[in-house]
Here is the input.
Amino acid sequence: MENKKEIVTFDIEGSAVECDKELLIKNSDYFSAMFKGYFKESSENNIKLQGVDLKAFNLIMLILWEESDIVTLDLNETYLLLEAACMLQFNSIKQLCEERIMIVLSPSTSLRTWKTAELLDIIPLYLKAKCMALENFMEICESDSILELNLEELCQYLGHIYLNSHKEFIVFQTAMSWFYENQNQSENINPTKVVLKLLSCINFNALNVGEITEMKTYPNISENAEIQMILNCIINLRNNRCTDVVDEFDRDVVSTAVHLCGAKNRKISVKPCILLQSMHPTHTPQSSRITTIVIYDRFHRKQTLTAMSASHLSLSVMSGLAYDSLTDTFKHFFPLEEKKVEHIEGFKLVRYKHFIFFFGGQHLRGSNEWNLNLWSFDTFKNKWERRNKLPHGRRHFETCIVGDSLYIVGGTGRFRVLQNNLLHCDLKTGKWSSEIINLPKDSREYQCCSFLGQLCILYVNHGTVYTFNIADSSWQSFKIAVEEEVVNSLGKYTVFADSTYIYIKGRKLLRLKFENNSFVLDKQKDVRLSEWIEIQCVQCNNLVYTIYKCFDEKYEFCYTLEEMNLDTDEIRNIFENKIAETDPVVVDKKTFYIRANTTQLFSTASYQYVKENIFVNDFL
Here is the structure.
């Protein structure tokens, strides 16, 4: 005869809810401790539950009794369910909620997910949501979700050093929009103190004097004498009129203005990655076939060398390894399956927000097919998906992401025809440019980068930078004011840029500043004397990572990975002269090898960096 269920009745928000006690004990650590421990409730059948949402509790019971699918719940119900599951320790339901929220996580849901998951201390969900919210500020600032934050939450968001805004003035505009919507929320808060706290979220060093002057015209600022004085003082400080500051403003105003001018620059939450090949456990480089090759040096001297056939290496998987500069260690980050990369050359890996794109290239053995797929790896959800398709086959091209546009520049197309043009894709809509745009010069000596929201193509040897206007597909040229002797000393070079400078890195590091309608040399430094045949570079805030491909004394490909601090000019090698397909890189007891012609350096989002609340300034 079936055992009779023991029923316990809960009083939740004034409603009686009957439950199977054994079912609760089986699924909840909270109720297991309550009914099996030495609590008075263990012998009671009528219990009042405080602080529990009735709807959420009924959803839990529905899932337990009927094994209902959580996917049928809307997101608001899922948040309610998650909070109750955490409180009452229904761990399996908590996990289901986390998985459901992670699946639908997007910029529009990231703020609420961040705040909910942080309150419940759910890691890494809250860090991923926080990173997404900070990265996608330009999209979130146009939505109403930001208006629902309280003052403390808003300041923690807008003031965060990893907030990604195309222009700092937009952060100010967003803060004031929130203020106008919420200024009547509490009569006990002094409006001047609120505005000053909001101004503490702004990096005033990233604003020009015209933008600071425009601030003074905003309602609730234009009629506020104290804030007007502070902004006027900041303008004088920016114009180096220190004598006027001392004469015109009292000590408190000057102190506040100096504080606001002491803001730190914003950063991006990224770290470098390198693509290496992992070896099958049963294969080693030594077991691969050794071949003999004959080469002639530049003096026509004959040399016989041995080389390992790369085709006999196990092609089980290529792997992205992320590098942590704080611990000086690599960590396995993502796999790239054999079918995507077997015998492929000339492809690119590039970061877009928290995604890694893999696209372009050609399978140079076997099928000779072009890789027309634009693959996307979601670093938060740890999965690959086919995002788009390239309209034309390209390999060995330059690439750049500017805002939400992906550019493919130059390279080699079908029938080995060199391409002196570009095409671009809107990553929000997935639409490619309807026409192929010719490059401004007929030259293969160029590099591209994103600078101040535009694609820049640098013809360094010609002393010219061209910027591309995507609205009308036009080009504008600017002079590079660098002496020819300096340019000739660069050797093979690469370029990168931040919000202030364009950098050219070869044997020297040149820092260019846009001034008087041209790019002038702001700083130069000798960085490397030895020769190389290829160079790749990626910037992660003030650290620049460079990988050099060289020949060693036996004419074998070898690679050096270098880190340079742009603030201190300090340079160190992370690894040096590693021979392709021979010298191992050991990560977590797994062995990886550099694979000639496919090793790439790129950056990736790192949600761990946003855990600590670092702000551009201390809040007033």
